[in-house]
Amino acid sequence: MERHQPPRTIFSFEVFPPKRDMPLDSIYQALGELAELQPDFISVTCGAGGSASGGSTRTIEVTSVIQDKYHREGVVHLPCINFSKEEVLDTLEQMKTKGIRKLLALRGDRVPEVEPKQDFLYAKDLISFVRGHAGDDLQIFAACYPEGHVEAPDLKTDLLYLKEKVDAGVDRLISQLFFDNDYFYEFREKTASLGIHVPIEAGIMPVTSKKQIERMVTLCGATLPRKFQRVLAKYESQPEALRDAGIAFATDQIVDLLGHGVDGIHLYTMNNPYIARKISDSIRSLL
Ligand code: FAD
User: What are the φ and ψ backbone dihedral angles of 75, each rounded to 5 degrees?
Assistant: First the structure.
């Protein structure tokens, strides 16, 4: 009798493009090493500044290299708040030309010096617009927040908006980073009870420096567990020890998530193949 194999857990990476004054190939080495780890896809961030900061061109270029040179599937991030409808259509056209079929549809954070274009107020507006134009040709991903989005009055309200967003045409969700898995498990239960049934990938960021983590926690409001705060305090001036502690903590978090049957793990790699490899090697057989 043939034994039924459960579906393998998706394992994916996030990278950011080189700054505009750096050559595109400055990221090739890192991309090559990350691609060797055979993630299911690599997503590429995009600044929220819209055309004022170069639009999505760099993101599309890097995604195209991921697909054509390194033979992994790529996902383009598109934060819409400072994009016009014409610019979004242009992005979709460029993606089609390059054979990119996955989009992470985002609102983006407000950029103080840029006046929002008003064509898209929320990610939901972008998702309806893109679905209307691309039909089922594109796989649409969206963001979700296990501890609630920082601007939302509370998690309950944020979840109601998330439901509207998913119903606008989302295929998969990727979560904001978190350090306490219990928030993620409670969030999963709440989304299911609201009728949100698309797969949710857990966003994991391995900590590499105290400064980096403090910035991230301020930006996204993630709770830092006491045990991890103690590690940060003890090793803050020993970069190698802190990096190793960050890898161990992230690996432990992932093992627990896999044990709880998570749909996917999305690693915020910070373009660092060393850290991604250490974690991949430890969890590969568990996926
Ligand atoms: P939305 O889903 O539109 O939600 C934004 C806020 O509006 C929430 O507080 C929500 O509760 C509220 N809201 C939603 N609908 C309504 C409504 N109808 N009425 C009133 N309030 C409403 N940013 C970038 O600039 N570039 C990136 O590449 C990038 N990549 C990311 C990748 C991931 C996996 C994640 C989790 C985030 C990423 N971000 C990125 C950050 C993201 O753009 C910000 O968190 C942004 O503030 C919210 O984007 P969103 O798509 O979740 O917005």
Answer: -125, 130
Residue 1 has pLDDT above 60, yes or no: no
- Mutate which of 161, 164, 268, 269 for ligand 1? The one with the most ligand atoms within 8 Å of its CB, which is 161
Are the C-beta atoms of residues 220 and 183 closer than 8 Å to each other?
no
CA 151 / ligand 1 centre spacing (Å): 9
Contact predicate 72/35, CB 8 Å = yes
Quick check: 7 pLDDT over 80? Answer: no
Taking the C-alpha atoms of residue 73 and residue 106, their distance in angstroms, rounded to an integer, is 19
pLDDT at residue 218 greater than cutoff 90: no
Q: Are strands 73-79 and 41-44 parallel, antiparallel or unpaired?
A: parallel
Provide Rg for the chain, Cα atoms: 19
The overall pTM is greater than 0.90? yes
Name the DSSP letter for residue 146: T
Is the pLDDT score of 73 beyond 90? yes
